[in-house]
């Protein structure tokens, strides 16, 4: 009986921790030798020398994240779902080689596989570029999509961006 109660307690603690972790988007992001706080973006403008700074998110305009609602429907069980497409627009003159987009509990997917053209790190609730995307070229964009429960656009915050020197990037062998 004690073992069953112990297991039950562990399950309850895990559920509680998952709700707390998944319910918050306010966490620190590693940046250089320190961390960026909430409402800040880690801007890695010289990754070869690991030169990074934390910038206020509302003052960072080199990357634009545009979520577009496409459609909504109700399945035969009465559950409502919505399709969104997201455009990550690079407004800088350097390729973006890596980025972290933070999500929270509002990113409630229809199914575990209801997203495409993006990598989902479920442990940290980050979206990153998929492995087959080497970069988002200067003044270009990357599109991805997802299907969520309900019809509310989920919260997404740009948390970290890594740029590459165009000359170094152009000379890389693949």
From TrEMBL:
Statement: the UniProt record of this protein carries the keyword Lyase: no
Superkingdom of the organism of origin: Eukaryota
An annotated Gene Ontology molecular function: extracellular matrix structural constituent
Signal sequence segment: 1-23
Designated name of the protein: Carbohydrate binding domain-containing protein
Native source species: Dictyostelium purpureum (Slime mold)
InterPro entries: CBM_49, Dd_Spore_Germination_Stalk
Keywords: Signal
Listed GO biological process terms: extracellular matrix organization
Example of a GO cellular component annotation carried by this entry: extracellular matrix
Pfam families referenced in this protein's UniProt entry, alphabetically: CBM49
Record domain Carbohydrate binding: where: 63-151
């Amino acid at each position: 009986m004690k073992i069953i109660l112990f297991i039950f307690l562990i399950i309850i603690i895990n559920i509680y921790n998952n709700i707390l972790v998944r319910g918050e988007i306010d966490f620190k992001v590693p940046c250089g030798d320190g961390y960026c706080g909430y409402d800040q973006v880690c801007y890695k403008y010289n990754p070869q020398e690991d030169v990074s700074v934390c910038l206020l998110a509302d003052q960072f305009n080199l990357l634009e994240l545009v979520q577009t609602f496409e459609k909504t429907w109700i399945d035969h069980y009465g559950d409502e779902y919505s399709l969104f497409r997201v455009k990550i627009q690079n407004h800088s003159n350097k390729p973006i080689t890596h980025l972290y987009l933070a999500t929270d509990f509002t990113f409630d997917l229809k199914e575990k596989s209801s997203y495409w053209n993006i990598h989902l790190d479920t442990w940290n609730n980050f979206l990153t570029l998929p492995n087959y995307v080497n970069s988002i070229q200067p003044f270009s964009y990357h599109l991805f999509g997802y299907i969520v429960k309900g019809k509310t656009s989920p919260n997404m915050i740009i948390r970290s961006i890594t740029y590459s020197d165009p000359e170094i990037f152009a000379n890389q062998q693949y």
